[in-house]
Amino acid sequence: MKSLLIQGYEVVIGFETHAQLSTQSKIFSRAPTAFGAEPNTQACPVDLALPGTLPVMNIGAVERAIQLGLALGSHIAERSVFARKNYFYPDLPKGYQISQFEIPVVQGGEVSFFLGDEKKTVRLVRAHLEEDAGKSLHEDSALGGGGMSGIDLNRAGTPLLEIVTEPDMRSSAEAVAYAKELHKIVTWIGICDGNMQEGSFRCDANVSVRKPGEPLGTRREIKNLNSFKFMQQAIDFEVRWQIEQIEDGKAIEQATVLFNPDTGETRAMRTKEDAADYRYFPDPDLPPLVIGRDWVERVQSEMPELPRVMAQRFQTQYGLSEYDATQLTQSVALANYFEAATKACHQPKLVSNWLGGEVSRRLNQDEASIDACPVSPAQLGLLVSRIADNTLSNNAAKQVLDVLWTDGGEVDAIIEAKGLKQMNDTGALEKIVLDVIAANPKNVDEFKAGNAKALNALVGQIMKASGGKANPAQVNELLKAKLN
Ligand code: ADP
Ligand code: MG
Q: Is residue 218 located within the same domain as residue 321?
């Protein structure tokens, strides 16, 4: 393996990701999980930790954990245990968080992805179910501000799956690629909406550095990274900071740090507790979680085709390169769009090129995703078939796409209305070619003298004379035949 050294140091990164599970109700209560409600309108007595209330396991959350385990090739524990993680904080009314400690529901597994053209595999330690805490509101808001802080317990009890990796990553770029792949998988199988702004997918990056061959260095944990851009910036800053400390002869102290996007710096929030500080013990209010083989098998039979399996199929079924197949399976929506458009024209490679090129460029401009593409897969397929059968030049096809994009309509009608039909009549074209040769003796002489560029000038003249409708490949062919 290539090792990436920064000033002679190797970077070591392990991730803990909190994926909010897309259930309607909370993990141990019936309160809704919808985002953005008025503070404290979605917290029921269980979430408020009122005396006498008891947690009841949400089956939907367990099912989503099973789905993730199956997607990542993990072991699904037949029996896992909920534990209390004890700490005091204003947004945690029970005084403990219900989590899983010694026996998590999902064990092992891995995430594979490409970093450039290098294939990487990050091993997972575990994924465990737990509840989210509430939120302290310090800034001006419905509850905070004016020197006061408020507590919003809407988020308390929201189901989370915490996905923990081995310290397998060796650069910020690899860490970001891992996070993107995991994000793709959880949204693909539909267990998490992946909305990072709303906190549905938050990553903690554990970062340390060491000289190659040395044991692992002391790590600092950057909390709650909620954008891929910040993730990269935060890790890069943290690595530079740690190296600087060590070079200055200072020791790294294990700590939890926060990234400030305004300064681009990480800053220690608190020295980190060890597991022992949390006095974990099995939660006596919840029986062990028992998952029978039949449940796992049913979930397995309902799993969608996973991205890497689909990418493999795209290569064999459509003859696409691994690169194209991987690009097309970045989201379910894109993959479905590709298949639908290809069905309409049987030109997978051309569809792939147009999706990756002209379509994605326009989507980027509109800041829209493929779900919001104004052109239907059927129309894109038809457009591609008009390129394939030589009705349209590439340029004319772009003009048709422009019209489809802004005004909608039907491909053949647009070609007709705008007179974009490519000239495929050899007789008419031949006449133009001969006229242009006759009118441009200078270019002809230059070409015959060995100046290849002179040919381009002639092609340009012919294209112009045909109103842009000549088939450029045909023009080249005819021109060369006449000149030789
Ligand atoms: P805790 O539960 O206290 O946060 P864990 O041992 O479970 O600690 O590790 C949490 C994360 O930190 C894991 O993703 C692990 O891979 C990563 N990690 C552990 N040691 C290191 C290290 N020296 N450098 C970087 N990451 C590390
Ligand atoms: Mg941790």
A: no
Residues 265 and 357 in one domain: no
CB of residue 202 inside a 6 A radius of ligand 1:
no
Number of domains in the chain: 3
Contact between residue 193 and residue 173 where contact means Cβ atoms under 8 Å apart? no
Question: What CATH number should be reported for the domain holding residue 456?
Answer: 1.10.10.410
One domain for residues 260 and 346: no
CA–CA dist 481, 475 (Å, integer): 10
Domain extent for 434? 426-483
Report which protein residue has its CA nearest ligand 1's atom 17. Answer: 14
Asked whether residue 36 falls in the same domain as residue 156, the answer is yes
Residue 484, class by beta-carbon neighbours within 10 Å (0-12 exposed, 13-18 middle, 19+ buried)? exposed
Q: Is the CB of 373 under 6 A from ligand 1?
A: no
Closest CA to 466 of 410, 402, 419: 419
End-to-end CA separation in angstroms for the chain = 55
Protein residues near ligand 2, an ion, with CB under 5 A? 16
Are 286 and 364 members of one domain? Answer: no
Q: How far apart are CA 18 and CA 450, in angstroms?
A: 66
Look at strands 75-76 and 255-260 and give their pairing: unpaired
Which of 265, 295, 325 represents a domain boundary (last residue)?
295
Same domain, 68 and 160: yes
Ligand 2: centre distance to CA 423 (Å): 66
Q: Which ligand is nearest to the CA of 272?
A: 1
For residue 300, being part of any structural domain is answered with no
The residue among 418, 452, 473 that closes a domain is 418
Q: What is the pLDDT along the chain (484 residues), one digit of tens a residue?
A: 456 788 999 999 999 999 999 999 999 999 999 988 999 999 999 999 999 999 999 999 999 999 999 999 999 999 999 999 999 999 999 999 999 999 999 999 999 998 988 989 999 999 999 999 999 888 766 666 677 888 999 999 999 999 999 999 999 999 999 999 999 999 999 999 999 999 999 999 999 999 999 999 999 999 999 999 999 999 999 999 999 999 999 999 999 999 999 999 999 987 766 777 899 999 999 999 999 999 999 999 999 999 989 999 999 999 999 989 999 999 999 999 999 999 999 999 999 999 999 999 999 999 999 999 999 999 999 999 999 998 998 889 999 999 999 999 999 999 999 888 888 777 888 899 999 999 999 989 998 888 888 888 899 989 888 887 888 888 888 888 888 7
DSSP SS3 for 323: helix
- Asked if residue 14 has its Cβ within 6 Å of ligand 1, the reply is yes
